[in-house]
Amino acid sequence: MQTFKTVLAACAGSLMFASFSYSQALPAGQIEPVEPDPAVVALVPASIKERGTLNIATMTKYQPYSFTVDGKQVGMIPEMVTAVAQTMGLKPAISTMDFPAILLGLQAKKYDIGMGEYFVRQDRLEVADFVTEWSNYNAFLVNNDSTFKPEGLADICGRKVAILAGSSGVPAMEIGTQRCKDAGQPAPEVSNFPAMSDAVLALSSHRVEVVLTGREVGVAMINQGQPFLASGKVGGGPTATAVARTDDSDGLLKAIQAAYLHLIKTGVYEKIHKGWGTDYGMIDNPTIYRKGDQPPSYAN
Fold first, then answer.
1. End-to-end CA distance of the chain
2. Segment (H or E) for 282
């Protein structure tokens, strides 16, 4: 895993992804407080209800999901998870961290849920349960002056590719690497980064040729006028909230699912997604996945 913490002055303009404000383009914090729904509150496990807070782990520096503006965590995830907690009659307690640390925190029982828009994979079902609440697919992000515009995994042989550590890009690139080898082509040179802003910095400074990431990342940056293009499509399907596997898991899974259904029915879910440009992935059927369940199929 590579981490690039030092920012060269010449690259400062490229770091807008990590720090610039959405205030002129996307409404941050525009959702009014959500009233608790009695039917959902009744499903909340007693120990969590008594505590009064929903302990949430999520990523940071990842627009439009979750990022910091003027010291405040904003984005689709903070707004959505706040609405979920309020529907459950709870206060959200949001902790931010690098993406790979979220599931580790759930395993350590530090948090109730992890918000990372996870593809539900078999390996992840070994350590946590999930409730689907959105859908997405990966795309390639390239510099807008690049002549390399990959359409699929077959196009990345011998190329320098950046991915977010622990993300769906990891198994996708494993598949792509094997396909290149099977075709007698050179394997891609893959760099893993703990934060998406680090991967984007590597792209803008031409240390990598392409970033494989969720479509929403490209949408967010291109809408902000950043010098990138989105290309191609890799995989795709439902994404989910991760739920810690504890004695309260069954009740919490049902409460989270019911909260999403309530937000969908009342229109709050749609309002949040439209506000952050993520409405292309809205779903209407939140589904629970536990260990032993067959995960969704994500075509690569």
1. 24
2. none
Domains 18-135+239-289 and 137-236 share a fold: yes
pLDDT confidence of residue 81: 98
Structure tokens at 200: 């984007």
Domain boundaries, the chain: 18-135+239-289, 137-236
Per the CB < 8 A criterion, the answer to whether 211 and 131 are in contact is: no
CATH code: domain 137-236 is: 3.40.190.10
What does the angle CA 169 – CA 232 – CA 5 come to, to the nearest 5 degrees?
A: 45
Give the C-alpha separation, 124 to 7, whole Å: 33
Across 165-224, the runs of DSSP E, i.e. the strands, are 189-193, 210-214
Tokens of 295: 């995960």
| DSSP per-residue string spanning 214-234 | EHHHHHHHHHTT-SEEEEEEE
Q: By C-alpha distance, which of 135, 113, 187, 162 is closest to 297?
A: 135
pLDDT tens digit string along 17-71?
A: 333 333 334 344 467 899 999 999 999 999 999 999 999 999 988 888 899 998 8
User: Under CATH, which architecture does the 18-135+239-289 domain have?
Assistant: 3-Layer(aba) Sandwich (3.40)
Distance CA 60, CA 83 (A): 19
pTM of this structure = 0.75
Residue 281 structure tokens: 């992935």
